[in-house]
């Protein structure tokens, strides 16, 4: 199943060469995404992102509703740090012992 996630565009990055991109916030997780399919999107707009590409703009109220649903159903468990268990503390390996 494919899932498009709503996020808020924070900043557009216009490069001389290549496709336009920008930083999008997904409930505290920020990712750089391609904006080629939504050239009209401006900072503050909400977009639906699939596979690193913003594919459409979305109303802010609808974006909040979708995010609340995704949280309730656990669909974001792999993506958002709040739903992810803390990684184990890094420790140095025990030295090898001769037997």
Structure overview:
With 99 residues, the chain is an alpha+beta fold. The protein has a single domain (5-83), classed as SH3 type barrels. It is 14% helix and 32% strand. It is built from one helix and five strands. It has one helix at 60-73; strands spanning 5-13, 21-26, 29-34, 46-50, 53-58. Strands 3-2-1-4-5 form a five-stranded antiparallel sheet, covered by helices on one side. A hairpin with a 2-residue loop joins strand 4 and strand 5. The longest helix is centred in the last third of the chain and has 14 residues, at 60-73. The protein is globular and about 40 Å long. The model is unreliable at 83-94 (pLDDT under 50).
With helices defined by DSSP (H or I, 4 residues minimum), what is the helix count?
1
DSSP helix fraction:
10-25%
Number of domains: 1
- Rg is 18 Å
Strand segment count: 5
How much strand content do the residues show?
25-35%
Which CATH class is shown?
Answer: Mainly Beta
Give unreliable regions as ranges: 83-94
Q: Give me the CATH fold name.
A: SH3 type barrels
Order of helices and strands: EEEEEH
């Amino acid at each position: 199943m494919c899932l498009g996630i709503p996020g808020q565009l924070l900043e557009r990055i216009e490069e001389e060469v290549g496709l336009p991109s920008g930083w999008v916030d997904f409930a505290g997780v920020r990712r750089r995404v391609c904006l080629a399919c939504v050239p009209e999107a401006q900072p503050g707009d909400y977009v639906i992102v699939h596979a690193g590409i913003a594919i459409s703009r979305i109303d802010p109220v609808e974006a909040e509703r979708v995010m609340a649903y995704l949280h309730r159903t656990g669909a974001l468990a792999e993506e958002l740090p709040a739903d992810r268990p803390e990684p184990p503390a890094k420790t140095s390996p025990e030295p090898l012992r001769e037997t």
